[in-house]
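Problem 12. The chain below contains 266 residues. Write out its predicted structure in C-alpha cell notation.
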Amino acid sequence: MSGARAAAVALLFVGPIHRLAAQDAEPIQDNSFLIEEAYNQEAGVVQHISTFSRADDGGWLYTFTQEWPLGDPRHQLSYTVPLVHGDGSGLGDVFLNYRLQALGDPQATVAFSPRVSLLLPTGSTRHQRGVGGVGGQFALPVSLQVSPRLSIMLNAGTTYVPRAKDAADNHSATLGWNLGGSGIWFFQPNLNLLLEAVWGSVEEVTGPETTRRHQEAALNPGVRWAFNLSGGLQIVPGAAYSIGIGPSRGDDALFLYLSFEHPFRH
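Solution.
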C-alpha cells in the first residue's frame, strides 16, 4: 500500500467517525501509536493495548500490552508480549515494565513518568526475533497539554543488553538510543488526528565482541477514535501509515491500534 493510498483510506473514516464524535465523551488520553504518554492508569482501571504493523515487504509485528495500577496511580506495572513474522513467525522478546508518575496527572498541563523495563530474551536469535540476552531499558516520557485541542508527547530512552548474541551465538554488549515525539489534535474529544516522528540508533551483534550500529527513522500520520460504553469501558481503535525517512527511506508499513480500558473493581 502506498502512502497516498493509506492517506485516502484514513480520510474515508473521517466522515462516519465525525458523527460518532458528536457523542458526549471524555477526551482520549491514550498512548500515541509509537510514542508513550506520561499518564499512569487510574486506580482500579486496567488497559489492554494491541498493535499490528505490516511492512510492504510482508513482515509484520503484533504486540499485546497490559497496564495495571499498583496500589495507586503513582505506580504502574505493565508487560508487553510481541509476535514477530520475518524469518518465520513466533514470540519476540518480552518486556516487564514499572513506571512512576513523578509529575502531574491526566488533568495537568505537564506530566512526567519515567519507566524502567526488564527485557527477557524469549525470542529466537536464530530466526531474528530477539537479542539473545537479558537487558534493561530506561525511558523518559513527557506529556504536554499545549491547548484544549493540542497535546504533545515527547520520548527519550536507552536500551542496554550486556550479553546479546547473534544467530551464530557470538556475544557482545549492545547499546541503543531512541527519541520521538507526537502531536495530537483533538478534532473532537473522541476523535484525534496524530502525527508522530521517531528515531532510533540500534546495535546488533556481528561477531565475537563485535557490533554494527544502524539508525532508523519514520513519520507516522494517523487517526484514532473512541467508543465510550456503559460500565466505564472505552474502546479506542486507530490506524496510521509509517513512512520511513532518512536511513529508513522505503521502509513503510501499515499500522493498526486497538485499546480496551475498563474498571476491574468498583
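Discussion. DSSP finds one helix and 16 strands in the chain. Students who got a different answer should revisit the alignment rule from Section 12.3.
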